[in-house]
Design a protein that fits this description.
5 strands; 239 residues; binds glutathione; alpha+beta; Glutathione S-transferase Yfyf (Class Pi), Chain A, domain 2; Glutaredoxin; globular; 5-stranded mixed β-sheet
């Protein structure tokens, strides 16, 4: 597999930067994921890769406490934004979880289920992909503050988080009333994947989901889609 341009092989694979490279099952592709296990944005990508049955090599990045995503080498050669996740597919390097979901579903989902081609569905999906970034800016920022010591105005992030989760809960309640369980269609799409992790991890941001019943039902539903994989803080459905 090719390394990122200018990246010496194993750069993020030493004690300072991360853990061991790991290759998952599934058909061999030249796919590599710069990944941090506790990141909800990285988890979105792992979820879709798994649902698509795509094998990939995981490049663990020491996000915390090493801040390897902010190293000069990472910024110069992997992602100028200094953020995770980043996908590499052969010579093609792509940051941003939402961009990666669109790319993977467009390229590797032969049935077009995760990113359906019809215009209204694509429009709705785009709305929720944008909303996913609002969730990162609020819920994820509060979680990073509480769990990882990142600087943030906690009360403001939590208030913003509750506001954006309210939008999600209202939409899901309306859909569920019409016997439609998912955000943008009659089956799960990348819209659901993009919004899911930090909604499900809201407790770690100090946000109680008791006031969001439609959201709780949707989280339960997504966890029970065959092929779902867990992450720390989001339980496997068998547990
Ligand atoms: N819009 C980006 C946001 C990514 C993001 O915020 N990633 C976090 C990890 S979950 C990060 O790398 N934060 C480091 C920072 O911004 O300093 C995406 O969806 O991938």
């Amino acid at each position: 597999m090719s390394a990122a341009p200018g990246r010496p092989k194993g750069e993020f694979n030493d004690a300072q930067h991360g853990g061991d490279l790991m290759t998952t099952g599934g058909p061999a592709h030249a796919l590599q994921l710069y990944d941090y296990e506790l990141s909800g944005n990285c988890y979105k990508v792992r979820l879709l890769l798994n649902w698509l049955g795509l094998g990939y090599t995981r490049i663990p990045v020491d996000f915390h406490p090493g801040r390897a995503h902010r190293s000069a080498h990472f910024i110069d050669h992997v992602n100028a934004r200094g953020q995770l996740p980043v996908l590499q597919d052969g010579a093609f390097l792509l940051p941003d979880a939402q961009a990666i979901l669109v790319y993977l579903a467009s390229r590797y989902d032969p049935h077009g289920r995760w990113y359906p081609a019809d215009a209204p569905t694509r429009g709705r999906i785009s709305l929720w992909l944008a909303t996913a970034d609002d969730i990162t800016r609020t819920v994820s920022a509060a979680r990073l503050h509480l769990g990882f010591g990142y600087a943030a105005d906690l009360a403001s992030c939590q208030a913003g988080g509750r506001a954006v989760l309210r939008l999600l809960d209202d939409q899901l309640a309306e859909n569920q009333y019409a016997a439609q369980e998912w955000l943008a269609g009659s089956h799960p799409t990348i819209a659901d994947i993009a919004c899911f992790p930090y909604a499900a991890l809201a407790g770690e941001a100090g946000i109680d989901l008791i006031a969001f019943p439609a959201l709780q039902r949707w989280i339960w539903n997504l966890r029970h889609v065959p092929g779902f994989i867990a992450m720390p803080g989001i339980l496997d459905p068998a547990l």
